[in-house]
């Protein structure tokens, strides 16, 4: 596998964004790599690109199945504001990870893969097994919801 | 309708526009981005995405997980070296099979290169030469060149002439027989090196019936026997002995192939 296809720091970050919890992310990350090491030793490492990310994704989804699920609520949406960048700068990585991990799948996977800034959209479609229209909707909606959340965070009035 | 679909696809692409220029590899994406470049909405989106990607880059890696980074090779597929490829049983089997096929092909090709009209009959007669005993022939003591008249007078065989190179050899015996294709074959046994001569009809074109000629002498080999064949007047003459080409060479004149 090329270095880009097994960018391990990015794999960990992906797990963290998917799960919003460092301990769980580490668990999934370690399990995925152990599995990969065993397969590599047996010469059975899948040849498909981004196998590690695909495998980690399923493990993350599996791991969060047993968690308390967020209530399905209609989330506020806002147009992206020109001040969004400065609002985001005040965010902690953990806050962002918690927000992304609370999103329903496939939006969660789409946002996590996209903001890793590791893959182009075709690769994301491949890893997440999505159609372009779905990925586009997930990202557009995610941006607007995140903007609404940022606005609420900054005005101090949670609008959910 | 088509325009609407195109606009929708462009919108979808713009929503997935990459954060870094490095990922702007797809042509349709490049086209969509270049069309929208400079619009406030797209600029806001890009700034928003960049800021978020920056936050993601700040996600700390726990030291326990970072240990894996030094063991990257553990999850690397084993590299295929030339040695491994060559020693792979499937590759080995295919290579051997290809070599055998190439060998058979080359053998046939070389065989074909040495072929000439009448070579099949000549080879058959080499087998006959190997199994012939002198008692099977009618005893005749004469110069080989004189037997042409005998073949013509007694058997009606025209142009069954022994070439000048072998005409002076003293014969021990001769016979005329039909081969399995009902061709009239004349066989002569001479004292010189227990050599045998064969005279047989030259091969003809199946459509026109014309004699297929070839120049000079041609060699044929079969089970330790060697024959030198020449064609003249629609009849092939073959001198045969047990041995190699070099044993026959001194007797031949003219172009040899």
Can you put this structure into words, describing what you see?
The complex is a heterodimer of chains A (about 160) and B (about 260). The model of chain A has no long low-confidence stretch (mean pLDDT about 85). By secondary structure, chain A is mainly α. Chain A has 8 helices and no strands. Chain A has a single domain (about 10-155), classed as PhyR, sigma-like (SL) domain (Butyryl-CoA Dehydrogenase, subunit A, domain 3, Up-down Bundle). Chain B is of the alpha+beta class and about 260 residues long. Chain B has 3 domains: about 1-70, no CATH class; about 80-110; about 115-250, no CATH class. Chain B is about 40% helix and about 15% strand. Chain B has a 7-stranded antiparallel β-sheet. The longest helix of chain B is centred in the middle third of the chain and has 26 residues, at about 90-115. The radius of gyration of chain B is 42 Å and the shape is elongated. The relative contact order of chain B is 0.09. The chains are: A mainly alpha (about 160), B alpha+beta (about 260).
* Percent of sequence in beta strands of chain A: under 5%
- Low-confidence spans of chain B: none
Give the % helix of chain B: 40-55%
- Ranges of chain A where pLDDT stays below 50 over 5 or more residues in a row are none
Number of helices of chain B: 10
CATH architectural grouping of chain A: Up-down Bundle
Q: What is the residue-averaged pLDDT of chain B? A: 87
- Beginning-to-end CA distance, first to last residue of chain A: 43 Å
Characterize the largest beta sheet of chain A: strand count, sense, and whether it forms a barrel: none
- Strands of the widest sheet of chain B, in order across it, are 1-2-3-4-7-6-5
Tell me the total number of β-strands of chain B.
7
Helix content of chain A: 55-70%
CATH uppermost class of chain A: Mainly Alpha
Identify the CATH homologous superfamily of chain A.
PhyR, sigma-like (SL) domain
